[in-house]
Specification:
Blueprint (H helix, E strand, L loop, with lengths): L1 E2 H4 L17 E9 L6 H7 L5 H10 L15 H13 E9 L6 E5 L2 E2 L11
Antiparallel strand pairs: 1-3, 2-3, 3-4, 4-5
GO biological process, one term: rRNA (guanine-N7)-methylation
InterPro entries: Trm112 (IPR039127), Trm112-like (IPR005651)
Organism: Saitozyma podzolica
Length: 124
């Protein structure tokens, strides 16, 4: 499943695509929310790996407004729970992810993104 925790690390790898290749932009999305066991310690440890602005923009594009626009220096448990929901419970089942840099479209089917490239698209 494409969760936002995974999406926050995906970039376009098309040959010569080095500008505006993160984050990939969702469209035509079928979004499913699935409860996941809460582990706020894991969320705290994962914070340094997140691109906060990209996460907030993506969450908002999917209809979730629960995250503050700027990353708090100290998170309350309520904010960590909202972050857990966005990262772990929002699943994109169907849709597309498009690179803003080159326009390449990565299709998502049954929760699995097709990140494979044609031979002529592969960077060397």
């Amino acid at each position: 499943m494409v969760r936002l925790i995974t999406h926050n690390m995906l970039t376009c790898h098309v040959r010569n695509c080095t500008k505006d290749n993160f984050p990939l932009v969702f469209s035509d999305v079928e979004l499913v929310v699935r409860e996941a066991p809460e582990n706020l310690d894991f969320i705290r440890r994962f914070l340094p790996k997140l691109d906060w602005a990209a996460l907030v923009d993506t969450a908002r594009s999917l209809g979730d407004e629960s995250l503050p626009g700027t990353q708090p220096e100290e998170f309350t448990d309520e904010q960590l729970r909202a972050l857990h929901h966005v990262l772990m419970e929002m699943h994109v089942e169907e849709g597309k992810m498009t690179c803003r840099g080159c326009g390449h479209i990565y299709h998502i089917s049954n929760g699995i993104p097709n990140m494979l490239l044609a031979e002529h698209e592969v960077g060397r």
